[in-house]
Design a protein that fits this description.
about 35% helix, alpha/beta, 10 helices, eight-stranded mixed beta sheet
C-alpha cells in the first residue's frame, strides 16, 4: 500500500520501528475498526487509533455530552455539552488525522441491530458501560467471527481482553448480567486517570493485533488494580455450555 509524503512524515516514528515498518503501517491503513462507546475508554482509544493511522474508524454512541463526563473524557470540552458524543468524537478524530475516514453513528447497540452495525469491520473495540451492550456486542462478534477487544473500568479496577470467537466475553461473565440496569461508573464512581490507562492499553492491544506484534493475546484478560498500580493477566477458559460460542 502506498503512502503520500505527508503520511510518511506523519507515521515516521511507526515506520522506523522494526516491529511495524511500512508493512505494519499498511495493515493499519487497510483496517476498519468500530469503537463502541465514546466515553472514558473511548476517549483514549479513539485518539490512539486515529493517530496511528487506522484507515476507517466508526464511532458508535447514542449519548449526549454531559458536564459530568469531562472528568474522564478529554475528547470533549464544556462547550460540547448537549451535543452528540459520536459526532463530537468523530470531529476530534478528523481534526487529529485527515487521512482517517471517520463515521459517527448516534445509535444504541442492541441484540437486534448489533450484527448490522459492526458487521462491515475488521475489529471491534468495546468500551461501553453496561453488560447488556457488552454482551450484545460480544454475541454479534461471535456470530460474525470478528475479533473483539473488550475494555471496562470502574472505581479503581480495569480490565482489557482480546476475544476471538472462543472463548468469548460471555464465557467470562456468563448470562447473569444481560439486564440493562446493572451498576456502572455513574453509580459506583471511577477515577478519571484509570479510564485513560485502560483505554490506552486497549488501543495498544488492538494495534499490536492488527500489525502482528507480540504473542497471541486471545483469550487472555488483563486486570489492572489502580490502587496497587499492578497489572496481572489471567486465561479465560471456553465454556462448553456458553450459548454464544459453545457450539463452535
Amino acid at each position: 500500500m502506498s503512502f503520500t509524503e505527508a503520511e510518511l512524515e506523519r507515521y515516521a516514528r511507526h515506520i522506523v520501528l522494526p516491529q511495524v515498518g511500512g508493512v505494519g503501517q499498511g495493515k493499519l491503513k487497510r483496517t476498519s475498526v468500530v469503537v463502541v462507546g465514546a466515553g472514558g475508554i473511548g476517549s483514549s482509544v479513539i485518539p490512539a487509533l486515529a493517530g496511528a493511522g487506522v484507515g476507517k474508524l466508526t464511532i458508535i454512541d447514542s449519548d449526549m455530552v454531559e458536564l459530568s463526563n469531562l472528568q474522564r473524557q478529554p475528547l470533549f470540552r464544556e462547550r460540547d455539552t448537549g451535543y452528540a458524543k459520536a459526532e463530537m468524537a468523530a470531529q476530534f478524530a478528523h481534526r487529529l488525522n485527515r487521512f482517517v475516514a471517520v463515521r459517527p453513528l448516534e445509535q444504541r447497540i442492541t441484540i437486534e441491530n448489533a450484527e448490522q452495525l459492526i458487521g462491515d469491520h475488521d475489529l471491534v473495540i468495546d468500551g461501553s458501560d453496561n453488560f447488556a451492550t457488552r454482551l450484545a456486542v460480544s454475541d454479534a462478534c461471535v456470530a460474525l467471527d470478528l475479533p473483539l477487544v473488550s475494555a471496562a473500568a470502574v472505581q479503581f479496577q480495569g480490565q482489557v481482553g482480546l476475544f476471538r470467537s472462543k472463548p468469548c466475553y460471555r464465557c467470562f461473565v456468563g448470562d447473569a448480567f444481560d439486564a440493562d440496569n446493572c451498576d456502572n461508573c455513574a453509580d459506583l464512581g471511577v477515577l478519571g486517570a484509570l479510564t485513560a490507562a485502560v483505554g490506552s492499553f486497549a488501543a495498544l492491544l488492538a494495534i499490536n493485533f492488527i500489525v502482528g506484534v507480540g504473542d497471541n493475546q486471545a483469550g487472555k484478560l488483563h486486570l489492572f488494580d489502580g490502587e496497587k498500580l499492578q497489572w496481572r493477566a489471567i486465561g479465560i477458559p471456553a465454556d462448553p455450555a456458553c450459548r454464544a460460542c459453545g457450539s463452535l
